[in-house]
Amino acid sequence: MVDPILTLRSVVAGYGAGDILKGVDLDVRPATVTCLIGPNGAGKSTVLRCVSGLLRPSRGSVVFRDEMIDRLSPRQRLDRGIVHVPQERSLFPAMTVWDNLLMGGYTIRDRKRLRERVEHVAEAFPVCVRRARDDAGSLSGGEQKQVELARTLVLDPSLVLLDEPSIGLDPRSRQQVFGSIRGLADRGVAVLLVEQNARSGLAASDVGAVLETGVVRLVDSGASLLANPEVARLYLGGLTRTTTGET
Ligand SMILES: Nc1ncnc2c1ncn2[C@@H]1O[C@H](COP(=O)(O)OP(=O)(O)OP(=O)(O)O)[C@@H](O)[C@H]1O
Question: Which residues belong to any copy of the ABC transporter domain (predicted)?
Fold first, then answer.
């Protein structure tokens, strides 16, 4: 099996009033989608924050490409290829789609290289070309999510952290978003995904991990977790259908 690009070991973290993560162990491998599921408030978003540097664990280690990154700033982690897409919409609504893509490469000083990166990325996301000159705020929620995903690629990341990318989207847009997420992995990017819509998230993932009361209780292939009666009872509305239907 390919070595993990990201390893969390015994990670403990919280926001002051007690620990939320109580010893999280997790591996994420290159060119795969790993989906973190679990009940509300389990700490799924907190795991992503510990990886991108928005939150520092009080104990444990976060290793990215054989380097301990625990003490690095979010910017230093970005420079190493870790991009975090938060749950909230993050495009600048009054700027054009194209300018939003350019903003995604804000650390690239060479204008020509930046333009080439944006053109390259836009090839894989038709909406970025079709709506290039429109204000991002005029796009549908699903289209905006596609632009957000495209924007993450401008910096050519090796790890993308996605927090609830399907939230608030209609079923068709949701399918498109999960298709694009698979596309990231096909390009060699490792994706760590947090998804409330556990059934769709696991169906689009190579690996699933169940986070409960601050620790990872179970790790298996996405397909195996979908077929696991206990997981189905707790997180998939009781059914072990292996479709991408709704929870
Ligand atoms: N900035 C913060 N300050 C204080 N507490 C916070 C903060 N962010 C999150 N929490 C608390 O930490 C716990 C875990 O939150 P987190 O968002 O990581 O959970 P989650 O599993 O992603 O939940 P959900 O599925 O509901 O999004 C929750 O009890 C939440 O209220």
Answer: 6-238
